[in-house]
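Support request from a user on the community tier.

User writes: "When I paste my structure tokens into the form, the page sometimes reloads and wipes my input. The last time it worked, I copied everything first. Here is what I submitted, just in case something in the input itself triggers the reload:"
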């Protein structure tokens, strides 16, 4: 019988990074790798960059601010968020995040469960 892997060690530098609108988005874990349970992305942004489209996602999202000063809007409610701040976005709720600080920022985004494509 094949042995299940104990886990997966992931370093951002070993992932493919997509660049878009002042953002560098690294997919650390995909839904395919977790049987659709969750996915994880790391988003690095330049000041003024909008990290997420306002289109409502089909899955729940959890955002964790790793670095920077962000303005995060969820369903029309906007808050300033700094390092250590976490935000839950329920499925179907529009959201966006804009880096408002003067230095690069970083977010972790977890989607769970991953919506089918």
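"...and here is what came back when it finally went through:"
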């Amino acid at each position: 019988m094949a042995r299940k892997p104990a886990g997966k060690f992931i370093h951002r530098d070993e992932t493919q990074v997509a660049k878009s609108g002042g953002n560098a988005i690294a997919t650390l874990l995909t839904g395919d790798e977790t049987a659709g349970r969750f996915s994880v992305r790391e988003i690095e942004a330049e000041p003024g960059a909008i990290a997420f489209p306002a289109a409502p996602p089909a899955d729940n999202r959890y955002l964790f601010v790793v670095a920077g000063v962000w303005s995060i809007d969820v369903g029309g409610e906007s808050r300033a968020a700094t390092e250590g701040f976490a935000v839950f976005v329920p499925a179907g709720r529009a959201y966006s995040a804009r880096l408002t600080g003067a230095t690069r920022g970083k977010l972790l985004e977890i989607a769970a469960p991953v919506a089918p494509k």
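Agent notes: The reload is a front-end session timeout and is unrelated to the input. Residues 38 and 61 are 9 Å apart (CA to CA). DSSP finds no helices and nine strands in the chain. Escalated to web team.
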